[in-house]
């Protein structure tokens, strides 16, 4: 305390000068409309800038909560899309709609490991068997197909990426429903190829490619990409279509794992049919 008093005494004239300057500025602001307006605008700018910085900091720390809210909202929206339901024709009248039965449910997951620069690429998700994830489930984002679950542990799952040379996805040209097979045979992680398309099929650059629904893994009409080029390669009788993917695989964070509630029933029926055909 004594040091503080000595410091003030030593610099008495300086503090007196500051006080007089403050009084002079205050009197100037009060007596002059121009200076008063300038002062108010300046203080508003400073306080506004401080509030904006505070808001930005607060918003940054709230990003996790906002992101989770968006994921939950996307999950609800996807669950309401037509391809999440199986159309039936039951003559039963109930309070709930009996014309459509839910066929697909979705498990949101986070990508914790991903590769795009290998010949065969994989992803790792932070959800596993304890969360309802199982082998051969499809993985998507709102922007398109990501891959298929390959292995599952209690809390994690590995996914064969669409960017894998062994992956074959049944897809279609959305405008005319012609079916083909989607493969990745390019070093470009933003492009895949669609093969097995007959040459008479009407296809144009800019056409949308989507899932065909001809599997128990992916629902119909999940978007995949746009046609960027097409031709018939030498020695082949079918079109090869270059597809530019909607989803950037170098920017994967949140995904949805698809559970087909009727998948097991459909697969068992198809396997039984194949066995019977072989025995004929």
Description of the structure:
The structure is a single chain. Helix content is 33%, strand content 32%. The protein is built from five helices and 14 strands. Residues 86-98 have low confidence and may be disordered. The strands form three sheets. Strands 3-4-7-6-5-14 form a six-stranded antiparallel barrel. It has a six-stranded antiparallel β-barrel with strand order 8-9-10-13-12-11. It is elongated, with a radius of gyration of 31 Å. α2 (12-31) packs across α3 (33-61). It has two domains: 2-61, no CATH class; 82-270, Beta Barrel (Thrombin, subunit H).
Structurally, how many domains make up the residues? 2
CATH class of the largest domain: Mainly Beta
Order of helix and strand elements from N to C terminus: HHHHEEEEEEEEEEEEEEH
The CATH homologous superfamily of the largest domain is called Rod shape-determining protein MreC, domain 1
Q: Which geometry do the CA atoms define? A: elongated
Q: Which secondary-structure class do the elements indicate?
A: alpha+beta
| Rg (C-alpha, Å) | 31 Å
Q: Give the helix proportion (percent range).
A: 25-40%
Strand count: 14
Strand content: 25-35%
What distance separates the N and C termini? Answer: 105 Å
Q: Can you tell me the CATH topology of the largest domain?
A: Thrombin, subunit H
Report the major sheet: 6 strands, antiparallel, barrel
Question: What's the mean pLDDT score?
Answer: 78
Architecture per CATH nomenclature, i.e. the level-2 architecture of the largest domain? Beta Barrel
Oligomer: single chain
Q: What strand order characterises the main sheet?
A: 3-4-7-6-5-14
């Amino acid at each position: 305390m004594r040091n503080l008093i000595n410091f003030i005494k030593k610099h008495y004239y300086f503090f007196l000068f500051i006080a007089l300057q403050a009084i002079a500025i205050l009197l100037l602001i009060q007596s002059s409309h121009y200076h008063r307006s300038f002062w108010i605008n300046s203080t508003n700018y400073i306080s506004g800038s401080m509030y904006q910085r505070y808001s930005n900091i607060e918003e940054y720390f709230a990003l996790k909560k906002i992101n989770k809210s968006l994921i939950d909202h996307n999950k609800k929206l996807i669950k309401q899309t037509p391809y999440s339901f199986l159309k039936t024709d039951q003559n039963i009248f109930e309070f709930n709609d009996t014309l459509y039965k839910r066929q697909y449910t979705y498990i949101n997951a986070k990508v914790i490991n991903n590769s795009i620069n290998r010949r065969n690429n994989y992803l790792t998700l932070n959800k596993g068997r304890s969360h309802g994830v199982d082998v051969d489930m499809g993985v998507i984002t709102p922007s398109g197909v990501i891959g298929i679950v390959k292995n599952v542990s209690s809390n994690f799952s590995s996914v064969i990426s669409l960017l894998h040379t062994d992956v074959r996805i049944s897809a279609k040209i959305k405008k005319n429903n012609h079916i083909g097979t989607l493969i990745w045979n390019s070093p470009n992680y933003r492009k895949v190829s669609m093969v097995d398309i007959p040459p008479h099929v009407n296809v144009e650059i800019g056409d949308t490619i989507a899932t065909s629904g001809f599997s128990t893994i992916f629902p119909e009409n999940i978007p995949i990409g746009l046609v960027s080029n097409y031709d018939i390669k030498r020695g082949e009788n079918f079109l090869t279509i270059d597809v530019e993917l909607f989803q950037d695989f170098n920017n994967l964070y949140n995904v949805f794992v698809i559970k087909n509630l009727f998948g097991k029933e459909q697969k068992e029926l198809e396997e039984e049919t194949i066995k019977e055909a072989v025995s004929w």
